[in-house]
Write a structure and sequence with these properties.
Blueprint (H helix, E strand, L loop, with lengths): L2 E9 L3 H11 L3 E3 L1 H5 L7 E5 L2 E6 L1 H4 L12 E8 L1 H13 L6 E8 L2 E9 L5 E6 L14
Length: 146
Amino acid sequence: MKCTLDHIVFNVVNEAQMIVFYTEILQLAGERLEEYRAEAVPFPSVRLNADTIIDLFPPKMWRPSATETAGRSNLNHLCLTLEKGEWTALMARLAAAGVAIEEGPVPRWGAHGTGTSIYFRDPDGNRVEARHYADAAASETSPLGS
């Protein structure tokens, strides 16, 4: 299977500090910073390279509710980008292996705009997002973001 890393998502305690660290110290380009500050999007991102971004999820996106007992895990999920045919074949392999798709297909924003994503877990419980950009409406956005 040929794929690329589209983005990773960090659950951050203080997004302002993380933005400064990644944009000023590491000198990565900020993505959607003004929109985030204006509360038009739910999280900011920084660009690692032309194909990959790092999303910075603020506490409101990962903090457990009163009924949840899970603590904070730093890595929220990783996202792989595939060609649409590979993505479709992956869905079939997941089904054949009995791996549940937890969410999707849903439109999500990423390193190349909005794509179509599914979410599932690996054997250790890590959340994986697989997406393709073909046929995704560029204007669609999701309140959950990535």
